[in-house]
Amino acid sequence: MKIETGGIRGRNLVNRGPPPDDSSETLLPESRSDKVFGRQSSACGAIVIGILEWNDDDLWVSFPFRFFSSCPLRELYGVNVTDGSVERYKARLVAKGFTQEYGIDYEETFAPVARISSVRALLAVAAARKWNLFQMDVKNAFLNGDLSEEVYMQPPPGLSVESNKVCHLRRALYGLKQAPRAWFAKFSSTIFRLGYTASPYDSALFLRRTDKGTILLLLYVDDMIITDGLYITQAKYASDLLSQAGLTDSKTVDTPVELNAHLTPSGGKPLSNPSLYRRLVGSLVYLTVTRPDISYAVHQGTLFHGLFYSAQSPLVLRAFSDADWAGDPTDRRSTTGYCFLLGSSLISWRSKKQTFVARSSTEAEYRALADTTSELLWLRWLLKDLAVSTSSATPLYCDNQSAIHIAHNDVFHERTKHIEIDCHFIRYHLVHGALKLFSVSSKDQLADIFTKSLPKRRTRDLVDNLKLVSHPP
Q1: Could you tell me which residues belong to the region Disordered (predicted)?
Q2: How far apart are CA 167 and CA 58, in angstroms?
Q3: Could you give the CA distance from residue 53 to residue 158 in angstroms, rounded to a whole number?
Q4: Which among 434, 448, 446, 372 is positioned nearest to 403, based on CA atoms?
Q5: Phi first, then psi: what are they for 449, rounded to 5°?
Q6: I need a surface site. Which of 56, 90, 115, 346 has the fewest CB within 10 A?
Q7: Of 71, 78, 67, 80, which Cα lies nearest the Cα of 37?
Q8: What is the C-alpha separation between 306 and 232, in angstroms, rounded?
Q9: Mean pLDDT of 31-55
Q10: What total of structural domains would you count in the chain?
Q11: CA–CA separation, 289 and 283 (whole Å)
Q12: How does strand 394-398 pair with strand 317-324?
C-alpha cells in the first residue's frame, strides 16, 4: 500500500504577515477575511470563549498589567485548500510565547517526540507480521495540556472584559513555550491510567500487554492507513520543495552530487538573501525521513522514490558501517555513514561529519563503528519491545580489516591509545554477544552512499540494494 507522508506543513494557519512559500493553504487579505469570517476579532473571540469555558471560576484576575507579565496574543486565519477547492476555513488564537520569561511564566519546555527510526521500525515489523495499524489525530492537542505555572493572557480583541483584568490560563494555548510538554504530560498520564506503560527506549512508545495480545502506541502526528506490504513516499513534499526553489522545469540529474565535488565555506558567491536557502535546507532534512539516498547530498531526479517494507521480510537485524577518511577539504574531518536493515527493510541510517580529525583511515572507521554500535544497541532494545527476537548477535559489516582486528584484539598500544574508550565500548558488546563483526568488500558496503559522492552506476546499485523504489502516481 502506498502512503504519502507530508505536504509542506511549515505553517498550519495563514497569518497577517507575509505569505508563506508553500501553497497548501491560501492567504486571505484582511478585507477579504473580514467577509469570510464576519469580523476577524469576532471569530477569534468566539474561539477564545470556547476555550475559556473550561475555567469558569477564578478565570479573570483583577490586577493592573504592570504588576505581572501577561502574554500577548496573535490571531491566525487560514483556508485549507484541497485540489484547488476550499475545504474549510480556520481561525486560531495563538500566544506570543517569545515574550515569556523563564522562571516567571514557564520553566521546563522539553517534550518527548518519537524517534523517526522508531516509526520506521514499527512500520517494518507491522508489515512483516501483517498487524492492523490505525491512526488517530488529536485535534487541537495542545489545548488539552494543564499548566503548572501561573500564566496570564491579555484579553483577545473583540472580547468584552473590564480594562483592569487579564485571563489566568489553566490550560495551554498554542504558542506557549510549555504547550508541547503540557500536552505530552496530559496524554501520558491519561494513557497510564488505561494500563499502558512507556518504553524505556523511546518515551513516545507506549505498550499494553494483556492475555489477548499487545497494543503498541507510538505518539507521532501523521495520517496513514497500513495493510500488508508498505510503500512510504514524500513525493508531494518533494514536489512542493521544487516549486519553492523554482526548479520545477529544471533538468534532472543522475547522482545526488557531482563526483569528487568538495564544498568549502569560502567557495561560491554569497547569497543576497539566504532565507530561502535556509528554509530549503531545513525542509530537505525532513525529506530524508524516507529518502536515505539524499542524506549525503540532495538531487531532484528521483521525485517518487520511497521506502518499501515487504510483508515477506524476515525480522533479522543487520548493520553496515563506513567512513570517508579526511573527506572535508576545509578541516579534514571524516564522515561517518551507517545503515540498519530489518530483513530487507531499511529502518535507520546516518550521514554525519565526525567530531574530531582522524589520524588514519582505521581511526575514522573505528569511530564510525562506535557510533554504529551505539545505534545497534538501541535498536535491539527497541525491537525487543516490538516483540522481535534479538537473542542472537547482530551482524555488523565493515570494509576495514584493521578496524575489525582492533575490535578483536585486547592489547592496546600507541596506535589505539587515542581511541581507547571506543575500543572498550565496542569490544565489551562484541564479547557479550550483542554484535558480531564481519568483513565486507567495498563493493557490497551499503553504507558507502552515506559518506561521499559516487558515480552514477554505483549510486543506482546502492539505491536498489537499499530497497528504494519508485511508484509514480
Answers
A1: 1-29
A2: 9
A3: 16
A4: 372
A5: -70, -15
A6: 56
A7: 78
A8: 5
A9: 43
A10: 2
A11: 11
A12: parallel
Please give the grid coordinates belonging to residue 309. Answer: 517494507
Rounded distance between C-alpha atoms, residue 75 and residue 77, angstroms: 7
Distance of CA 10 to the CA centre of its chain: 13
Domain ends where: 163, 188, 218?
218
**Domain of 237: which CATH number?**
3.30.420.10
Per the listing, cell 559516487 goes with: 454
Q: Which residues pair with 4 in a beta bridge?
A: 233
Task: Pick 214 or 189 by higher pLDDT.
Answer: 189
Global pTM reads 0.78
When pLDDT is cut at 50, 70 and 90, the band that residue 428 belongs to is: very high
Q: pLDDT (tens digit, 9 = 90+) per residue, 305-352?
A: 788 888 899 999 999 999 999 998 889 999 999 999 999 999 999 999
Q: Do 274 and 189 fall into the same domain?
A: no
Q: What is the pLDDT of residue 446?
A: 96
- As given in the structure block, the three cell numbers for residue 29 are 487579505
**378-389 per-position pLDDT tens digit:** 999 999 999 999
Residue with cell 495551554: 172
Q: In Å, how far from its chain's centre is CA 28?
A: 30
Which structural domain range is residue 106 located in? 12-218
φ and ψ at residue 470, rounded to 5 degrees: -120, 125
**If pLDDT is split at 50, 70 and 90, which confidence band does 416 have?**
low
Residue with cell 523563564: 102
Whole-number Å distance between alpha carbons of 142 and 184:
9
Burial track 293-304 (b if 16+ CB lie within 10 A, e otherwise) = bbbbbbebebbb
Q: What is the dihedral of CA 169, 174, 175, 180, to 10 degrees?
A: 90
The cell numbers describing 445, all together, are: 558496503
Same domain, 30 and 157: yes
CB 156 within 8 A of CB 49: no
